[in-house]
DNA sequence: CGGCTGATGATCT
DNA sequence: GATCATCAGCCGG
């Protein structure tokens, strides 16, 4: 709809294997741009292109894992490819992909999707008809995709109903920016977006110069 | 579109 | 008791 006009959607999305996921957290955050998040629910198949991610690294003061494992963040310490879901501001679920080896706390936050399939169901879940707002931001993304705390710890590359799939069509250039809504280690360029994609979240000024920093 | 603000409750100290 | 990896609504340009 934006950068690349999708042709026909596939009958089945091609699931990613764990082996396909880069082992480095930043590399994974970049890799996931353009890939597809799919949720096969009882009522609909929901799918969207990942257009914005953030990396939360080992030793990163902004990371939930910075002070070690807790009840909330334990899924961050699972093998790469598992979901870490937490409740932000007491209300909104946020979906991350654990990015390292078992026992290491690191993850990639999925911040925005470009809806591909299941628009009607997504509108219903979100209570809006504005497609631009369906999955722009982590809380909205979780709402549109019907992701909840029940998915905390599930394997996103393990054959379940919520999974990561290969890109549908070409992926645009990736730009970097600073992460949203944090105060510690806030200047690090650990946010990644598909250049020019209108489904990304946050104010445009944080993306930097016109067109953003090409990387 | 950008900027501001109140609501909100889980989590951790 | 403080701190949030946020959102919707409102207002001004």
> What is the class in the CATH system?
Alpha Beta
Distance between the termini: 23 Å
Give the assembly state of these chains: single chain
Query: Averaged pLDDT, please?
Result: 93
Largest sheet: 9 strands, antiparallel
Summarize the amount of helix as a percent range: 10-25%
Overall number of strands = 9
Cα-based radius of gyration, to the nearest Å: 16 Å
* Contiguous uncertain segments of 5+ residues: none
The CATH superfamily is identified as: Methylpurine-DNA glycosylase (MPG)
Following the backbone from N to C, one meets helices and strands in this order, namely HEEEEEHHEEEE
CATH architecture: Roll
- Return the structural class: alpha+beta
How many structural domains can be distinguished in the coordinates? 1
Number of helices: 3
Question: Could you name the CATH topology?
Answer: 3-methyladenine DNA Glycosylase, Chain A
Provide tags for this entry:
215 residues, alpha+beta, 3-methyladenine DNA Glycosylase, Chain A, 3 helices, globular, DNA-binding
Protein described:
- This protein is an alpha+beta fold.
- The chain has one domain: 3-methyladenine DNA Glycosylase, Chain A.
- Helices cover 11% and strands 26% of the residues.
- It has three helices and nine strands; from the N terminus they run αβββββααββββ.
- The chain has helices at residues 25-31, 119-126, 138-145, and strands spanning 36-40, 45-56, 83-88, 92-98, 107-117, 162-165, 174-177, 191-194, 213-214.
- Strands 1, 2, 3, 4, 5, 6, 7, 8 and 9 form a nine-stranded antiparallel sheet that branches.
- A hairpin with an 8-residue loop joins strand 4 and strand 5 (107-117).
- Helix 2 (119-126) crosses helix 3 (138-145).
- The longest helix is centred in the middle third of the chain and has 8 residues, at 119-126.
- The protein is globular, with a radius of gyration of 16 Å.
- The model has no long low-confidence stretch (mean pLDDT 93).
- The protein binds a DNA duplex (13 and 13 nucleotides) through residues 54, 56, 62-64, 67, 70-72, 86-92, 94, 96, 109, 111, 137-140, 179-183, 203-205.
């Amino acid at each position: 709809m934006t950068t690349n006009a999708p042709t026909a959607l596939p009958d089945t999305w091609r699931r990613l294997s764990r082996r396909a996921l880069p082992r480095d957290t930043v590399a994974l955050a970049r890799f996931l741009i353009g890939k597809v998040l799919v949720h096969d629910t009882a009522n609909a198949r929901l799918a969207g292109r990942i257009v914005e991610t953030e990396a939360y690294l080992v030793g990163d003061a902004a990371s939930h894992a910075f002070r070690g494992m807790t009840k909330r963040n334990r899924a961050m310490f699972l093998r790469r490819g598992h979901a870490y879901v937490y409740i932000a501001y007491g209300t909104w679920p946020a979906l991350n992909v654990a990015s390292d080896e078992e026992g290491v706390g690191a993850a990639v936050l999925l911040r925005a999707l470009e809806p591909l399939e299941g628009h009607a169901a997504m509108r219903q879940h979100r209570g809006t008809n504005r497609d631009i707002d369906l999955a722009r931001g982590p809380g909205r993304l979780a709402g549109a995709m019907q992701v909840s705390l029940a998915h905390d710890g599930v394997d996103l590359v393990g054959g379940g109903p919520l999974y990561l799939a290969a890109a549908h069509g070409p992926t645009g250039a990736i730009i970097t920016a600073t992460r949203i809504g944090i105060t510690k280690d806030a200047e690090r360029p650990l946010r990644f977006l598909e250049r020019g994609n209108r489904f990304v979240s946050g104010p445009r000024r944080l993306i930097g110069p016109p067109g953003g920093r090409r990387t």
